[in-house]
């Protein structure tokens, strides 16, 4: 179930995110902002099983609404236009973004009461950790 992910999560650490953004092809200026920003991650689910994931910061708020395993179009915080699908696998929420022949995965899981997001692009992995507000 996705219920364990529902709520507002506050970022407490971010490792290797600059390298991850570089691997995605994010420009220098956007990376500077991305490295300084500590967004909240907010997730909710409505009665129809529609999931809403929000990344909120003073710099930018992005929001996607989707159903599990159904592909949708996403515009990411760094303005990539991706075809995205989110699935639940062994308690992990896996978000696959595809664009221009490239692909990245964001794998979220709850570990010791924290939400851990592992962002993978090729052999570059960034880990961002959140605690529930």
From TrEMBL:
GO MF terms here are:
retinal binding; retinol binding
Q: Which domain of life is it from?
A: Eukaryota
Pfam families tied to this protein: Lipocalin (PF00061)
Q: What keywords does the record list, in alphabetical order?
A: Retinol-binding, Transport, Vitamin A
Keyword Nucleus carried by entry: no
Against Gene3D superfamilies, the record matches this protein to: 2.40.128.20
Query: Which part of the chain is the Cytosolic fatty-acid binding proteins domain?
Result: 7-24
Any coiled-coil ranges, and where? none
Query: Which family does this protein fall into?
Result: Belongs to the calycin superfamily. Fatty-acid binding protein (FABP) family.
Describe the function of this protein: Cytosolic CRABPs may regulate the access of retinoic acid to the nuclear retinoic acid receptors.
Q: What is this protein called?
A: Cellular retinoic acid-binding protein 1
Species lineage: Eukaryota, Metazoa, Chordata, Craniata, Vertebrata
């Amino acid at each position: 179930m996705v219920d364990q992910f529902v709520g507002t999560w506050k970022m407490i650490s971010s490792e290797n995110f600059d390298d991850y953004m570089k691997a995605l092809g994010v420009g220098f200026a956007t990376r500077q902002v991305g490295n300084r920003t500590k967004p909240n991650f907010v997730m909710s689910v409505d009665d129809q099983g529609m999931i809403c994931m929000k990344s909120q910061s003073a710099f930018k708020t992005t929001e996607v609404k989707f159903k599990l395993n159904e592909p949708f179009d996403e515009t990411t915080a760094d303005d990539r236009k991706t075809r995205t699908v989110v699935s639940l696998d062994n308690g992990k929420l896996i978000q696959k973004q595809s664009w221009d022949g490239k692909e990245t995965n964001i794998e979220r899981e709850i570990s010791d009461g924290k939400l851990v997001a592992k962002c993978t692009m090729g052999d570059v992995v960034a880990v961002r950790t959140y605690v529930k507000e």
